[in-house]
Amino acid sequence: ESEAEEYRKRREITVEGRDVPKPVKAFRDVGFPEYVIQEIVKAGFTEPTPIQAQGWPMALKGRDLVGIAETGSGKTLAYLLPAIVHVNAQPILAPGDGPIVLVLAPTRELAVQIQQEATKFGASSRIKNTCIYGGVPKGPQVRDLQKGVEIVIATPGRLIDMMESHHTNLRRVTYLVLDEADRMLDMGFDPQIRKIVSQEDDSESTVAANVPPPQIRPDRQTLYWSATWPKEVEQLARKFLYNPYKVIIGSQDL
Ligand code: ADP
Ligand code: MG
């Protein structure tokens, strides 16, 4: 117990939430399957970054989480490796199924970068992904979605477009990532994010009185990432995270 605290102090890891798991010191302590470890080794990484050391055991618990760490601190793999494990634990896609993992990102450039990591680390388990962003023709993106992909990385506007034209749906999304939440809010994506996150599972009608509001789905894990933690970011997080873990790297008064 105090060993975990000592480690957190040394690496400037602050945690909040109920039943926080211990941070991991080495890649092999996470409990990742061997195919994930192999990719990490191939990438030449020597140890988890602080956000990974604490974020991985949290994400693998299946709970919602808020991760705050500066740019360049390894947030992408902090959510992508658990996403890959998650996908591999799900039944395979059936025709017409939408993605299992959805990553929302503010810009095309960032979405493409995330896709490159998803491709690299998902290849050995044959996970298919695609990137959905505006400013380019829809045809190739539509064809990818129709083929069926487990992971979609998207900017909010084009994703809503694809949903409204029934080229994809979020019924199977059980792992939802909001990357660079602060930038997405700065860019005015708040309404689009709310719309995407609150998509109801229209495969069943839930009218019982004590069903949680649609933005909080018991079958969906939501991971919310940001470099900064201003009030607006916190408000959005509070709206759709259930019993989240929170991990902050570095100075606490962000
Ligand atoms: P962030 O999203 O926090 O800005 P990134 O996920 O883009 O950071 O990671 C920044 C860089 O660090 C990338 O080139 C990534 O491949 C690399 N990286 C990720 N994890 C590790 C690690 N454990 N050790 C070394 N480099 C890493
Ligand atoms: Mg990032």
TrEMBL record:
Motif Q motif, residue range(s) on this chain: 25-53
Recorded superkingdom: Eukaryota
Domain Helicase ATP-binding stretches: 56-247
DEAD-box RNA helicase Q domain boundaries: 25-53
Protein family: Belongs to the DEAD box helicase family.
Record protein name field: RNA helicase
Annotated organism of origin: Camellia sinensis var. sinensis (China tea)
Lineage of producing organism: Eukaryota, Viridiplantae, Streptophyta, Embryophyta, Tracheophyta
